[in-house]
Task: structure prediction
Amino acid sequence: MTGEAAARAAEVWKIYGHGEAQVHALRGVSADFQRGQFTAIMGPSGSGKSTLMHCLAGLDDVSAGEVFIGDTRVTGLGDAGLTKLRREKVGFIFQQFNLLPTLTAQENILLPLAISGRKPDQQWYDLVIKTVGLGDRLGHRPTELSGGQQQRVACARALVARPEVIFADEPTGNLDSRSGTEVLGFLRGSVHEFGQTIVMVTHDPRAASYADRVVFLADGAIVDEILQPTETSVLDRMKNLDNEARAAAPGNAAAQNTAGQNAAAGGNAVEETPDA
Amino acid sequence: MLKAMLRGLLAHKLRLLLSALAIVLGTMFMSAAFVAGDTVAQGFTSLFSTVNSNLDVQVTGVSATGQDNPDVITALVPQSVADQVAKVDGVQESTAQVISDGARVIDKNGKVVPGTAPRFGAGWTGTSSLLQMREGNPPSGPDQIAISANLAQDTGYTVGDKVDVITLQPRKTFQLVGIFGYAGGRDSLAGETTVAFTMPVAQELMLGKPGNYTSVDVKAAAGVSQEELKQRVQTAVGPQYKVQTADEAAKSQASGVDAFVNVLKTGLTVFAVIGLITGAFLIFNTFSMLVAQRTRELALYRSFGASRGQVTRSVLTESVLLGLASAIVGLIIGIGVGWLLKKGLEALSHTNLPVSGVVVKPYVVVLTLLVGILFTVVAALVPSLRASRVPPIAAMREASTPDKPLRTLTVLGLVTLLVGVAFLVLKLTKVWKDPLWLVLGGGCLLVFAGVVMLAPALSRPVTRGLGALFGGSVPARLGTRNTGRNPRRTAVTAAALMIGVTLATAAGVFASSVKAGVTDLFKNDMKAQLIVQTSDFTGTTGFDPALQAKMRAIPGVTNAVAVRTDQVKLGGKSTGIGSADALAAAEIFTLTAKDGTIRPLQAGEIILDENAAKSLNASVGTELPLITTRGGEKAEKVVAIIENSQTWSGPMLNTTDAAGFTSPYAQQGYVQVGPDGDVGAVKDQLNQLFADNPEVNVVDQEQLIKQSTSFLDVILAILYVLLGLTIVVAVLGVINTLLLSVYERTREIGMIRAIGMNRASTAWMITVESILISFFGALLGVVVGTALGVAIVKIFGGDFLKLTIPWAYLIITLVLAVIAGVVAAILPAIRAGRLNVLQAIAYE
Result:
């Protein structure tokens, strides 16, 4: 099965606004995300990395081009089709965890299955629970869990439905580095042990180093990619990107430099808001 | 700061609009009540001034019984006094008038022309600037009449027709010779109908006393003031006659209207206040939400150096502006509604009030605006104080408002509830009786307030229990959990609905208990299967009491009694009185003597019930002075005291002395049919007996029960319609709360949509929450309302009320609550369903 694309973008354009105020968030991006692969999408603020993920996940529509999840053409689906897609093929992990405060950890994990009226595969469920290491906290409400525990609940929630692909949006953005490491290790484990496909947006080179492949975006286009990245190789590549950007657009340099420095400072910067 | 604050106010337009609507409705009711009331009052006052425009001073008799019926005049002015008045120095012209209620025209179908307005019979005194002939001639012979134009229109009679009229005497046939109208093209002055006879005929038929008048209208000579003339006339006629200036006369004539206007004002104001209290809950909720939502913003002000007072004032200023704006809109709409009410009343009474548009007095404007602002500010007080407690540090924190524990509130609620229950128990056990408003009113209010305070603690378990009824689907479960999430908010929202439902339920319990009581009464204590009654209650209609013998003679009838009623002065006190064949009455009404014996009464004899005996301080053998309207003063000896009864209350006079009553007729007849008799056949016979009397009809027990309780249906109908409006306000509150919840949970809703919940399920989740809130409020209302209704029935009950719970009504209320919940959910559910998933997730 490996080698086949779990998610695919073909010549995707995303344009916001009209006329003078027009912003090209994505400029003809084409990318395949292989089954059983952990891909990180990186890039400075405003590079379009979040937009790309939103388009891939069917959360945002594209201005031109096509997006596929497995063999499903996402582009052009209506609300009912998108709902079906989300139920069956897509899982999400958010920076803000987004657990329902009224439900226990276990109920949160089972929510996607409950929504689509499916029964959990008990063996798989047990395995996921064991892997995320939440055994004794399952009856607790999110407010009674630490950030790391909450994010592990969110990961379990995404995994338990065995989606075609999990999209993770800055999953470690709100975590301290120890909790972040746990979550990243867990994500990598789920790819290598269970063959899960994960696409993660991050600006933290350390987080990206857990991926099998890093795709670099700048100015709405893919500019580079690294296979089997390390923290150093990612950091180097980011610096280069920064310099290139500075050379290309001197007016933007200061802002991008700040973003780069924050990223370099350990990836715990929380001020960045999603591109939308 | 004000500018920034106002911007904050405008940022939540929809929510404010919803809460404003509640205040608009309340102030609208209020201003409409006052505007319509003032307009009607002014209209009638100027109407009566018109009526009196031809006179300066009016002389009338003083009622012997101290009970003035403004329409049926029994206190008369004899010819000799009229002559005296004419001779007073300064009188330019004096006209003796006869005008009294009770001239009933039979229409072309043989029925009495119905009407709630007076049906005057008058003596013709000629045309004037006020009264003009429209057609034909004035009556000039004893068998001729002229009628007012509205009567001609209602009946279709034209000059030359034969017209039957019932007066103090049975129906007589007259020839219609003329039709008259009033100044300004009016067909009638205030909806009344008038039949004009020649003066001697009017004296005979309307007063029963030839040579007497109901009033003498006097015009002053030039240079003599009204006051002066009044003094002179009063001196001439002596103190046993009432002498009034035209203005005074107009005022006393308008007194009946004033009473009506006051009822209108009071009734609508009560509903306005209920609406405003409901609205206050809504405002409280809205401002609590706004403050919670703006925690960061407020903290920012604090960190810039705003004082607590400034923050409190800023929120209060918002509430003042909101209250003012709503009250202005309410006032404007209210003036419109007041105009509609005036038009409606005019249509109902066939009158044209001489007021163009409506009367808006300054006090109405001030009062409406003040009340609107007051309710809004009071409701916003607690939230604004809460706003001032936001610490500056909250600007830096994740905006989270931790739930305060409910324990204090719950304990307080429990105590309040228990004190309220204690009040009611004390009243019920008669340990503490007075003052009623405090014991009963205070008790009910405390019970209600206690439950409102307990509502937050109750909301979670109750809504969770109810939520189970929706099944275990994900949206239903999430909706149920969401309802329990913010118990205070859920409770306040539900409490708004609870007000209306509590009132309606308590009223429903009371009304159905009255109904059941009346039914029981007729079934158990009333031995008559058939009842003869007159078509209206003016006291002028009825049948010849001598017909009692004929009723009794009908085959199958075992007993019958004719009852006459009137208002008299007995033992120096004004009282209602009945007169009947004592033995027959005792049997049919199941009356038992407590003291003395019930026996046929001779002239000068009377029976009292315990209550009357107590209030008159009389016992068997006591002689009491009795003054009747037409019979003068007589002494009546008490021969028996009967136990208090629900079928007969007050004194029972011998039939001979009843000749002095206002009406010569019996108003009711009760006919007992023996076990072998055929009720239907007897009814037919009775109908034949009264065939020539169109004002009498014969009903059986069932019909009588229906008639006796029909007024309850009318009252309840009005109550339900108006309470329906308060429920509308409460539904606005539910919408408001849900919109806020959707707004607050934007990210959550985005997330569950992102993990695969479809729009319909999302909408259902919101709907479940909405239904649960509404149902919870209605349930509290039904429970509290039933409890209070039961308490009130037990307290007032005596033997008359029979506690009956209107189950069907209660179930309908709860069903309506579910429907209201579904309706309230529509807008918020659409909003939640339409949320853009991406934006919802990204939403901070």
Observations:
- The longest helix of chain B spans residues 701-744.
